[in-house]
């Protein structure tokens, strides 16, 4: 999946200009982190990329197809190739791990099987295999509410993979986790990314982890891309380019 973000602009109704001119591209199989101070526009960018928010200007191309101006059908088809995991996991707490992973299939199912929860043997087997892949083979029937934060993020990763995404958006995936668990989740994400040649775009406040796990950094400040550099760029250069005020530094 090749993702091109070209001069994207977003102004909210209250006239906040969250994105002024964001441009960058991501090649297939890349692990790229978007960094920047609070309010830089990172979440807004991710919401536009996962289709939950429209931009006001510019273009987003997914494998050469215009995403933001596509008709509903094309937009939906592109959206199925994009998975998202969130800081707060966004799981159904009372449902089991298996059920949460299977829920990823609901948008593609006919009304009756979806309402009756009839997913079929193949989907169930795939959900269980994904739970095994993320290290939760023994938690298939466990309600999510009984899991730790790290285990919940593993379920969320399995749910995202259930839709066979080409691009995975990871929106602050380890912000709610302790440092050891956060690192384990990023190691898992990197293993999966490398196995499946998945493209990962991560939004993170943690510069050290972004540098360790990604190959490239995109720095946003006041809605504009102010850095597009290899992840091993010296931290001093990154801080100077992206975090203009000392109090914003991570
Ligand atoms: N729904 C909204 N309506 C109005 N303004 C908004 C809305 N969502 C975000 N903003 C504003 O847009 C700007 C960018 O916000 P955004 O959440 O994208 O930043 P961020 O880089 O993700 O910040 P953080 O790291 O603190 O999560 C901020 O000034 C924010 O107040």
General description of the model:
With 250 residues, the chain is an alpha/beta fold. The chain has two domains: 1-81 and 165-250, Rossmann fold (3-Layer(aba) Sandwich), CATH 3.40.50; 90-164, no CATH class. Helix content is 35%, strand content 24%. The protein contains nine helices and ten strands. It has helices at residues 42-49, 72-79, 97-102, 111-116, 121-133, 149-161, 179-196, 207-213, 235-242; strands spanning 3-11, 17-26, 31-35, 57-62, 65-66, 82-86, 167-171, 199-203, 216-221, 224-230. The strands form two sheets. It has a six-stranded mixed sheet, sandwiched between helices. The mean pLDDT is 91. Residues 12, 14, 16, 18, 36, 38-44 line the site of adenosine-5'-triphosphate.
CATH architecture descriptor of the largest domain: 3-Layer(aba) Sandwich
Total count of domains: 2
- Overall shape: globular
* SSE topology string: EEEHEEHEHHHHEHEHEEH
Could you name the CATH class of the largest domain?
Alpha Beta
Give the full name of the CATH homologous superfamily of the largest domain: P-loop containing nucleotide triphosphate hydrolases
Keywords: ATP-binding, Nucleotide-binding
Protein name: ATP-binding cassette domain-containing protein
InterPro entries: AAA+_ATPase, ABC_transporter-like_ATP-bd, ABC_transporter-like_CS, ABC_transpr_LolD-like, P-loop_NTPase
GO molecular function, one term: ATP hydrolysis activity
